[in-house]
Amino acid sequence: MGLSQRAGRFKEIGQILSIRPASDSPLTNVEAYTITSSVQPPNVIHARDPIFKPGSETALETTATFFETTETYGSDGVPQFTQYVVNETLGASKKVSEYKEYFTVTTPGLMSTFGSYAGSNNSGAAVRSPKALTQPSTFRKEGLVEIFLTTSNEADPEVAFSDDGVNWCSIAFTNFFIDDNERTATCSSSFRTFTKFLNSSGTTDVAYVTRVGEYSSTAYSFGQGSLTYDTDGVFRSKVVPFLRDGSGTQYYLKTNVSFSEASVNATSTSLGSISPVGFSEYTINSSPQYVVTPSANQGIVSVSINGAASETITDPAVAQTFTIPSISGSNSIEATFGNKLTVSTSGTGSITSPSNTTSLYVRNAGTVDFVFSTTPTSITFDSVVQTVSGTTFTTPTMVSPKTIDIVFPA
Fold it and tell me: What is the pTM for the complete model shown?
């Protein structure tokens, strides 16, 4: 039986059989409906005669987005259509739902190194060992879940609390021992990686012990790895197919989970401390404060915020407070401490570099490059007379407070 033979049994122009809110979908931020019609699809009917919302005299938007139809047939052969519709125009991406949920996350610990010394009359050892300043912690954290109706099937990268691509702390250890009596020397080395731990300023350092004329022992540690860990971003991103719209464009449901917080990783070298130390989280645009404190008879060499060592140090010998203003994303603050080099001069010449020799502190195992206005007559470093060569001089490595006496011509 052809359509013309059945035409009298139903309205050829089609009619709406039902329209109900689509409560079984994740689209909670938009009006969505499931519409059933006969003869013609709902979008065709709506283009001709407006479809009204259930229980109201308000019609659906003329630009409402209708998705693909499902077609069935009754026993009499009359076609019926079911169609999903969002009561607004959809572009390439539209947030259709959001809610908060708790997730299990792990934040990293902070690795440093620890120096130790042992010695007797004719032997001794300096050792540097790994030291965890803070431990990784696992806890429940509230994240924002957002669902988008999008035409792209690409998930966002997982950047927050994801171990993928994180350069965890690795430390190389090297030990040297020289026996002055036996005229022998030994060397040993090792390398370790500490997953779930960030690097710190304190992983690169030196330990030194000696007895003049007997032996000397030096231990080095060289650290590398990420100083920061980004917690502000997508924790999980997944995409699943949804439906095609009337034009044939495929839509997808994309789910993102994000944490809107900022973080700071605070580290320091030996000979002092920073507080709070390690990885800390803060609300975005907050301005956390950090206290940098040198050990007794030591001083602050530099304080670097996000890699820029430009913070003003008013008195390197006492504790200083530093503020990181309006933070977002991942941040770092690094404090470097050092040994004091007491400088004395005499004669008519002068030191042109460094500019400040009154409170001069040198990072552990560091050196100082001096530039003079004229060639000194003599230089004595740590009570040992040095070789003078022109208007420049580099001190030996400093692993403890030292003195330098520079004599210029009269």
Answer: 0.70
